[in-house]
Amino acid sequence: MEGAEVAGSPPGRARGGSGARAGRAPGAPAPSPGELLEGLRARGPDRGGLAERRAAGGRVTVHVAGALLQTRGGEPLEACPLEDPGGDALAFAGEIFGGLPGLRRGESDSQALFAALRLVGASSEETEAGSVPGVLSRLRGPWTIIFWQERQRTLWFGRDFMGRRTLLAHYPDADDPRFLLTSTVPQGLVAGEGRLGGRSNRKGWEGVHPRSWEFWREVPTGLHRLQFDCRGGAVLSGVGWADPLLLQLEAQERTPPASLAGTTGPNVVCEVAAGELVGAEGAFEAGAELLEEALQQAVRSRVLETDFNPDCAAGSTSSVSHTRPARVLVAFSGGLDSMVLALLAHRALPLGEPIDLTTVCFRGGDSPDRASARKGAAELAAAAPGRLWRLVEVDATVNMVEEARHRVQGLMCPANTYMDFNIGAALWFAASARGRCVFHRSAGDGGGSDQGVPEPESDFQSRARVLLMGHGADEQLGGYGRHRTCFARGGWEGLREELRLDVRRLWKRNLGRDDRFVGDWAREARLPFLDEGVMQTLLRLPVPVLCDPTQEKGRGDKRVLRRVAERLGLQDAARREKRAIQFGTRIAQLSNSRAFGSNRQANLAQAGSAVIPGLEHAA
Length: 619
Fold this sequence. Notes:
CATH topology of the largest domain: Rossmann fold
Number of helices: 20
CATH superfamily of the largest domain: HUPs
Structural class: alpha+beta
Shape: globular
Oligomer: single chain
Strand content: 15-25%
Radius of gyration: 24 Å
Strand order of the largest sheet: 23-22-21-20-19-24-25
Number of domains: 2
Largest sheet: 7 strands, mixed
CATH architecture of the largest domain: 3-Layer(aba) Sandwich
Distance between the termini: 33 Å
Helix content: 25-40%
């Protein structure tokens, strides 16, 4: 459920660390509540609606719009946003995997959260635990929330501690005095609709208004509230987390080196020697075991909470596994991260269910990522006998990229560089999961009667609503080339600080943007490497266990994850080197040729950080 609008002109500015600033947006359009709702339909095709509330004696109007993509719960939700007779209204986008007492598997987490928030609002006594911040601080999982609390005349809004779900804001200024919140910038349709897998084919989109890059800003992570007084004034403030674990994860404070007692592996003592963390004998293997267990739990919760999917329900009676809709799709390059996630998903799901893998290429099916994806799918089949893997090969041409240009740029807003576009186009086409399907399965008990491998299908569309992605692995495990540079310049301390910085800026650089690209195809991105338990585990491990820049590429980077892959039987994947998606898919080469004439000219222009002309932010 997405989106909200607050009409009125709150005089207060952000306090308590929200970091928001008002910006001028001359000539920018004034999206209506209905236009904001329509902009959310692609993300939430199941149902949507609009709730209206009044504050300050009717001088302030609050609209809360919601559009639903349901992935869990036994029955379809009948209302979106959720409302109660007392006037409260909730728009919630995300998943709750823990921290909400009484929530059981298969139940609607939105309804359970709404009940908990209503109970807090009805209480005459507020404690830290029995407060809106207290309830939200206990949640485990990705979320964005907009909650109107009628009794307190307060609008609560925010994102989880990592910002794993998108939320954009327009702060009141001279050109538009309203305070607006939305998950994605509304886009205009001029002509040329078709159908693509049961949804609109994105042709003929004119994109967002050119002033949108000045108008909208990413909402910082954390919880914020807008409190109205009886005269129509309001104060916007930030509210801190009430859970020490979230504070630690948000700050990326590493646990001091100590005995890792209580693990199922050998006891480990990590000592400080010569200013560097040095693991005792067995530290590395114990770290790999801890990480494997934490990742398995994170993947399990993310693939099993997928019980609501009308397409899966309609196809569940099929006795032919290759035609049965999958409930899980994996963003798949055949690289280390996606291979580990796919194998862990295999361990969590019944053997008779297929798992879809999506890979994208921008050079006629000939790219490094496509080659490794094919090798990876074959390796998965060998490591998981009986499982049917469906590799969906998405091939995008230069004409397809041009047709999608306005759409992709609108989704990445307020991001505005060529790198944002290249990454965004790759993710957007990959998330479509439509293309040639190649089936992979090795001998084993497949849980059904059809044990053969079907012939490839030329036009296949994945129906999965959940997309597993490897976000956060490189940032936490030293997977980028710059991590070697930081180590060379500043040793282990320099590397530790760079890892900390990388994780802390993920919300602004990657997560909101990429959530918008995936959500545009009515899919939900789930990120096991950014699970609270996984992150806590990684902060417990010494940096030399995570990565070792003194070793060669393909061995020292993400060192402990490579050991996890070996433990899972993925020997080839454990040795595969890192490739950024824009280079592995060849989208950067295509984009650089169009924008700069050649890769050489693009490098001279520092294309990675160059802003696309016309998409500049206000000064």
